[in-house]
Specification:
The chain has 320 residues and is of the alpha/beta class. It has 11 helices and 7 strands.
Length: 320
């Protein structure tokens, strides 16, 4: 891909790491920040209310982009996929004997999530593919009441950051039906799914009306190139249990969180502290898109360019 600015000629292939930002995008952000005053959204002055409204609009845009709504998911802004996974690790309630299961090909940050779980299972890709093709779970029936008091979590990427391999979204329902109990040290009735979509959503459309994982982690710079240091956790928040102190706005959180936060307000979703307001505001523009009309167009262009590349092109890039 050639950078948009005519003065810069460079072959760029690292779209799994981050896409290229648009020159018009940066100009639009600068224009917006020059014409408006943004402030701490937790305050009560006019600029703060403007900021709060702008952030709420961004949340609606994010949910609409993934074809869902605030009745299904809440948006928790983070510094990226790693921070979103950390929140899941800190807050997911495994209950008495829940298990963290994860695919061997996973985001490196998933390895850190292991620190919060007592029971761990790493699942080989071929094993996951074989189990997911099974339509029944008769070989892992549950016969104890204890299984109702544990929650297990399966974490996997929709697209591998390294190889580009895409994993089926149909796994979600199979996991919920207990297909992994045959591999888990403790069987449970309650299985939940966390999707790492950081790489996938940069060139693919994620439709959360068709497939509904409990958690989705994303990094916006992989989608838009700018701003960096901003991502989100899309969550059905009733699955989380508070193990951290929050600041700012919380709504739709379970009762333990609301009781521990004296500053809760009637916002759409949780904000874990206050960070980088301007990155959030910038997303108002980036979600509109400047280079392509849709994610489908991005995918089509990426496929076209990839198919045009020759072995000599790859060698030339690495020699540079």
């Amino acid at each position: 891909m050639i950078f948009e600015q005519e003065k810069i000629k460079e072959c760029y292939l690292d779209h799994a790491g981050s896409t290229l930002y648009s020159e018009k995008q940066i100009q639009g952000v600068f224009s917006d920040l020059s014409k408006n005053i943004y402030a701490n959204p937790h305050a009560k002055n006019l600029a703060s209310r403007l900021t709060e409204d702008a952030i709420d609009i961004i949340r609606y845009q994010i949910l609409d982009h993934f074809n869902t709504n605030i009745e299904e998911y809440s948006v928790v802004f983070t510094s990226g996929t790693t921070a979103a996974l950390k929140i899941i690790g800190e807050c997911f309630n495994y209950g008495d004997d829940g298990t963290l299961a994860y695919l061997e090909n996973n985001h490196t940050s998933v390895l850190g999530v292991r620190n919060y779980a007592k029971n761990l299972v790493e699942i080989k890709t071929e094993v996951a593919l074989r189990l997911s093709s099974t339509s029944t779970v008769t070989d892992c029936e549950l016969d104890t009441e204890e299984s109702y008091f544990s929650n297990s979590l399966f974490v996997y990427p929709t697209q591998c950051n390294f190889s580009g391999t895409k994993y089926p979204l149909t796994w979600i329902e199979n996991i919920r039906n207990g297909i992994l109990n045959s591999l888990s040290p403790k069987k449970t009735k309650n299985w939940y799914v966390s999707l790492d979509c950081a790489s996938y959503v940069s060139t693919n459309k994620l439709d959360l009306s068709k497939h509904k994982p409990d958690f989705v982690t994303i990094s916006f710079y992989k989608m838009f190139g700018y701003p960096t240091g901003l991502g989100a956790l899309l969550s059905t928040l009733q699955r989380l249990v508070a193990k951290f102190e929050t600041t700012g706005s919380v709504n739709n959180l379970p009762t333990p969180v609301r009781q521990r936060n004296a500053r809760s307000t009637e916002n759409i979703a949780a904000v874990r502290g206050l960070f980088d307001i301007f990155n959030k505001i910038s997303n108002t523009l980036t979600l509109k898109g400047t280079r392509f009309e849709s994610v489908e167009a991005v995918k089509a262009k990426a496929t076209e360019v990839l198919n045009q590349l020759t072995e000599a092109d790859f060698q030339h890039c690495f020699r540079q």
